[in-house]
Amino acid sequence: xxxxxxxxxxxxxxxxxxxxxxxxxxxxxxxxxxxxxxxxxxxxxxxxxxxxxxxxxxxxxxxxxxxxxxxxxxxxxxxxxxxxxxxxxxxxxxxxxxxxxxxxxxxxxxxxxxxxxxxxxxxxxxxxxxxxxxxxxxxxxxxxx
Length: 145
Description:
With 145 residues, the chain is mostly helical. The protein has a single domain, classed as Glycoprotein, Type 4 Pilin (2-Layer Sandwich), CATH 3.30.700.10. Helix content is 41%, strand content 8%. The protein is built from 2 helices and 3 strands, in the order H-H-E-E-E. The chain has a 3-stranded antiparallel sheet with strand order 1-2-3, covered by helices on one side.
């Protein structure tokens, strides 16, 4: 074979096997990254929900200190941002920094219960990732964090 013939036979580029190997490697790396990011997102939602539960519980306790009673279940957490009609000593502007009640990390509203079965004075509940009340993944304001 002469030099000219060799040059003609040399082809530039990647073979199909090389391309497939690269796609497999990229796919495996992408799977690892997505798995790590997804677990961090779930943890961030839990952390955010716990922080909101603490803030709401503190606001309910401040409401009680000012008004000598807890919000009723009918008033719920709305009593923290809107003055109940029978309350005179209410904090101007409400008990939260915002004008609306935050939702939990999964977009669900918090549930306020007065004198729940646990024996506590009140509990604020997040239904957790599954969105169903009373399951193991519920987060409560009474839990020690």
